[in-house]
Amino acid sequence: MELFSLDQSKELDIIFLGRVAIDFNPAYSKELKEEFKPLEQVHFFEMFVGGSPANSALGVQKHGLKAGFFSCVSDDQFGDFVINFLSEKGVDTSHIVRAQQGEKLGLTFTEMRSKSESSILMYRNQAADLSLSVEHIDEEYIKKAKAILISGTALAESPSREAALKAVMLAKKNGVKLIFDIDYRAYNWKNQDEIGIYYAQVAKEADLIIGSREEFDLTEQFIQKGMSDEESAKYWFSQNATILVIKHGMKGSTAYTKDGKAYSIKPFPVEARKGFGGGDGYNAAFLSSLFKGEEMIVCLENGSAEAAMMVRSNNCSVDLPTTEELQAFIKEEKEQYGEMIARV
User: 197 exposed, middle or buried (CB, 10 Å; 0-12, 13-18, 19+)?
Assistant: First the structure.
């Protein structure tokens, strides 16, 4: 896409910066099934790699892109697990470092009470990913990438906050596209003022911003409160952005482009297993399609479809689809519900 031109000579497509974690989900396989129930009644769990930036990196790899990663993991067996898993799936792990002060990977225990009711229980005291530091940010590595994606969670604490801001500055210096996934997680932040300060700093430099309406409201709190989607697009286009993706949950999402166009998509209908993980799949398919030069409405449709596939899955990483699996799902949905099922 002309609005988001990329240097095709670079060996990495996207470097992701942010958290990687461990998900413990109620077991749901052919051998053992924990049906919908409160977390305290679950006896058997399955362990998966988690964390939105890590899942998105895995997802773009499934679609044929090459992903790199800046993060910090615990210096223990869990750290071994996530590095080995990411590496086996093709993600470049050369810039994932080990925590030196005993910090541990965040643990996520997921609760699935019904098709419409799910939640997560987080353990993120002294989280390893938030100990990523400025000395871990390698300019030569950033130069190898077409784009770098900053996850907003990385801005929640120091030293990760400064590491993310350094990566932003180096990306801008070297002509590397900057993607900002606002990725708000309330449990990481000490106060709301910090959210508005640091989100806005990164958003003002970003070429592409992805977030929910709530996340844009947090980002804009010291700029102008209560902006509409169209007003947000106009403002961020006056800064540096050329594409904005604003999500409205079950109402769908809209991409605004700097040439004055807007494209909207609705969710694909599926029977959900959980209410989380969809955003990771959305990012993976949307970004992969964008990097392959697809039309914006196709990027949105693929993102919406992969989000639907992931909310019906029992995990957020292993079941991320290949491009062929994604297209088969879209074909099946359109045959059942009509060609324009998701397009507005």
Answer: middle
C-beta neighbour count of 40 within 10 angstroms: 6
| Segment 93-119, tens digit of pLDDT | 999 999 999 999 999 999 999 988 999
Q: What strands lie across the sheet with 21-26, from one edge to the other?
A: 45-50, 21-26, 107-112, 118-123
State pLDDT tens for residues 252-293: 999 999 999 999 999 999 999 999 999 999 999 999 999 999
Beta bridge partners of 209: 180, 244
**233, 224 contact by CB (below 8 A):** no
Instruction: Find out whether 53 and 21 touch, Cβ atoms under 8 Å.
Output: no
Reading phi first (left if > 0) and then psi (alpha if -120 to 50, else beta), residue 152 is in: alpha
User: 151-186: string of b/e by CB count within 10 Å (b at 16+)?
Assistant: bbbbbbbebbbebbbbbbebbbeeebbbbbbbbbbe
pLDDT band for 3, please (50, 70, 90 cuts). Answer: confident
Q: E strands within 177-316?
A: 177-181, 208-212, 243-247, 253-257, 262-265
Q: How far apart are CA 14 and CA 17, in angstroms?
A: 10
Beta strands in the chain (DSSP E): 12-17, 21-26, 45-50, 67-73, 96-98, 107-112, 118-123, 145-151, 177-181, 208-212, 243-247, 253-257, 262-265
Cβ–Cβ under 8 Å, residues 104 and 78: yes
SS (H, E, C) 7-45: CCCCCEEEEEECCCEEEEEECECCCCECCCECHHHCCCE
Quickly tell me which residue has 């969710």 as its tokens: 267
Over the stretch 231-243, which tens digit does the pLDDT of each residue have? 999 999 999 999 9
> Distances from the Cα of 232 to the Cαs of 71, 191, 202, 205, 214, in angstroms?
30, 23, 15, 15, 12
Give the three-class secondary structure for 265.
strand
Distances in Å between the Cα of 72 and the Cα atoms of 10, 21, 105, 156 are: 24, 10, 9, 15
Closest CA to 332 of 270, 245, 284: 270
One-letter amino acid identity for 227? M
